[in-house]
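W.,

You were right to be curious about this one. When I first looked at the sequence I had no strong expectations either way, so I just let the prediction run and decided to look at it fresh. Below is the sequence, 313 residues in total, followed by the output.
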Amino acid sequence: MCWLPELSQTRRTLADGARNGFLPTNLLRQAQLRLEKRASRAICLPSSSFQRKVSTLLRQLKPYSYQIFLLLLIPVAFWLDVHTKTLLLQHLLGLAAWVVLFVATRFSPPSERRQIWVMVGVATCVEIWGSLIWGIYRYRLGNVPMFVPPGHGLVYLFALRSARTPVMLRHKTLIKNGALAGATAWALFGLTLEPLLFHRLDVTGALFWPIFLWFMRKPSASVYAAAFLVTSFLELWGTSLGNWAWQVSAPVTQIPTGNPPSVIAAGYCVMDFIALQIAAMLPPAGILTRVLAHTRLRPAPVEARPVSEEALA
């Protein structure tokens, strides 16, 4: 039952009236019933200390709001995808992903926004090659879903923003070493225990391990460590729900592959690195703006004509 100061005061007034004989017993009981009914409908407001704790918690979580949002969105989106039976419904899901990416990048500076959209283009090319041409993995409907390119942009944005969070700035070395240790343990698991437990040997993931080690030695290692965390999370959800599946062995090379490969996050890191390099080569105003500025039509200069003596007179 809620405790409210005004209700408590009313209870004391009724008790005093009954004790002094001012209220008959039947009227007292009716007043008490009405009072308890009012108390049951009252909105219980938290105490000031509780409000302060909630406010402090929300303030501490604010720098991680996008990360929390994306980690919750990934399993929900994948669950919705496996329950879509037609391409039209999947396209609608993809359209929603494009809208989410557009809104999310509105809160980014122009340089970061440019990196994200370059990443979308790079990832689209990689997806067409890896899934449709090479075929090392396949999506459940045999296509590249419309939500995949913007999904890469959202994941890259996760990595970029995570590198600026307080926990990453304070514990950069610890998180970097933790990501490397996790990648190493996963690669060893794919070569030793995974064949025994899941009957799949994962050599592809182990081949990605030296690439990931190289990224962990770069000054921007915190970005790639965050990419490892979110892409591993994404790959485990996507393959477990059946959104996509990796081949038992890679086409052409016949290299055994896990589902997912253990350190496949290094592949995402390569795409992140390529996108960063391309974005760095672009002029600040963008190529299109620069081209238009140089090709803009200007009025022809007016040729000076000699002034006659009559005009001067």
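Here's what jumped out at me. The mean pLDDT is 86. And, maybe more interesting for your project: Residues 11-41 form one domain.

Coffee later to discuss?

I.
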